[in-house]
């Protein structure tokens, strides 16, 4: 009888330790899979302290109702040109400050609005839309084959185009 109770206790201990080991394993995998990547904010790295809209429709609505111009950045996460421009944009203090006066949207997908691709669907591409919801086709970068493209070296041109989008707003409306 003594042997039998020892055996029961021994088996009980094995069952308990197996159960605990399983739970510990579960916890570890949960934490390790969740930890490495921080939740993606709407800024996608273009300026985490700025307020970004989620959709094109929301951005248009906000531009119209706040009387602020809309700045749309088309880019792709795996495009080296987009990544380089994003870095230059995020590190440029004046651009980050001026960007606060815009409704902001960065898209990693194309919209169905053909006005957002006046000369083709390429990235990175930055367009401005005024509060009357008119695409500002006159505010362009320096490339004749990709009018709305900017390179990191064009960051000062982008800044002056942002200023232009703000100025025209005051004079036209």
TrEMBL record:
<feature type="signal peptide">
    <location>
        <begin position="1"/>
        <end position="21"/>
    </location>
</feature>
<keyword id="KW-0256">Endoplasmic reticulum</keyword>
<dbReference type="GO" id="GO:0002162">
    <property type="term" value="F:dystroglycan binding"/>
</dbReference>
<dbReference type="Pfam" id="PF13899">
    <property type="entry name" value="Thioredoxin_7"/>
</dbReference>
<protein>
    <submittedName>
        <fullName>AGR2 protein</fullName>
    </submittedName>
</protein>
<dbReference type="InterPro" id="IPR051099">
    <property type="entry name" value="AGR/TXD"/>
</dbReference>
<keyword id="KW-0732">Signal</keyword>
<dbReference type="GO" id="GO:0005783">
    <property type="term" value="C:endoplasmic reticulum"/>
</dbReference>
<dbReference type="InterPro" id="IPR036249">
    <property type="entry name" value="Thioredoxin-like_sf"/>
</dbReference>
<comment type="similarity">
    <text>Belongs to the AGR family.</text>
</comment>
<dbReference type="GO" id="GO:0005576">
    <property type="term" value="C:extracellular region"/>
</dbReference>
<keyword id="KW-0964">Secreted</keyword>
């Amino acid at each position: 009888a003594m042997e039998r109770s020892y055996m029961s206790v021994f088996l009980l201990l094995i069952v308990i330790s197996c159960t605990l080991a399983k739970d510990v394993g579960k916890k570890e995998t949960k934490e390790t899979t969740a930890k490495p990547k921080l939740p993606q904010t709407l800024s996608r790295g273009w300026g985490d302290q700025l307020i970004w809209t989620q959709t094109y429709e929301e951005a248009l609505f906000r531009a119209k109702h706040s009387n602020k111009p809309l700045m749309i950045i088309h880019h792709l996460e795996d495009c080296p040109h987009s990544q380089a421009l994003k870095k230059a944009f995020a590190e440029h203090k004046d651009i980050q400050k001026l960007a606060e006066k815009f409704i902001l949207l960065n898209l990693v997908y194309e919209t169905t609005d053909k006005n957002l691709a006046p000369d083709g669907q390429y990235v990175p591409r930055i367009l401005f839309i005024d509060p009357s919801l008119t695409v500002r086709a006159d505010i362009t970068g320096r490339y004749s084959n990709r009018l709305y493209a900017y390179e990191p070296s064009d960051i000062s041109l982008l800044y002056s185009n942002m200023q232009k989008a703000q100025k025209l707003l005051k004079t036209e409306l």
